[in-house]
Specification:
This protein is mostly helical. The chain has one domain. Helices cover about 65% and strands about 0% of the residues. The chain has a two-stranded antiparallel sheet with strand order 1-2. Helix 4 packs parallel to helix 6 and helix 5 packs antiparallel against helix 6. The longest helix has about 40 residues. This is ArgG. It comes from Metarhizobium album.
């Protein structure tokens, strides 16, 4: 007996796309210049030249585009820069997410260490920091690093706009039938052979 026709959900799903990382996502996850300065001062780490990093990366992308301008057409240049800028933005976002996790771990460890009844979180032997202190210092390092990568990404995005004449947007790649496993795809192909 023939099965009644039902709408194919896989065609509806194939229209979905995988969202790319935006500069706004980077700004939400990475410290800004003011916060990075506070971190650097509080933990006696290097103070990064935020404006210098941003302008250097902007010049880098612009000069790269100028050197390629004779060999690439307008659309090819746009695609090439789209990928390069996307790499900078993705790297900064990854660093920002890592920084956020490090801060959470540092807060948890510091809260546990403030409980006087816990022996495992007490300071280490003389000359060694407590586990909570090490986590705070690690989070501070990650904050400064993610800020530096944010500045590089902002410079790359500014250069893209300067060269291409449009605001950079992440490439949203279409996802082919998300959620379907390889086994399910194979089963669908085998069943389609029966007609």
């Amino acid at each position: 007996m023939a099965k009644p026709a039902t709408p194919n959900r896989s065609t509806a799903r194939s229209a979905q796309s995988r969202r790319g990382t935006t500069l706004e996502m980077v700004r939400l996850s990475c410290p800004d210049a003011v916060q990075a300065l506070k971190i650097a001062e509080s933990f006696s780490t290097a103070i990064v030249d935020s404006d210098g990093i941003r302008s250097l990366h902007e010049r880098l992308i612009v000069e790269t585009a100028e050197s390629l301008s004779e060999g690439l057409g307008e659309k090819a240049m746009q695609i090439h820069l789209q990928r390069i800028v996307g790499a900078f933005v993705g790297s900064a976002h990854g660093a920002g997410q890592f920084y956020s996790r490090a801060v959470t771990e540092a807060r948890d460890a510091t809260a546990k260490a403030s409980n006087d009844a816990r022996d495992e979180d007490l300071d280490g032997p003389v000359g060694y920091d407590s586990g909570a202190q090490r986590k705070r210092e690690f989070a501070a390092d990650m904050g400064v690093q993610s800020h530096a990568l944010r500045m590089a990404a902002e410079g790359a995005v500014a250069a893209y706009e300067q060269v291409v004449g449009e605001t950079w947007k992440p490439f949203d790649r279409p996802v082919e039938n998300p959620g379907a496993s390889l086994d399910r795809k194979a089963a669908e192909a085998q069943m389609a052979a029966f007609g």
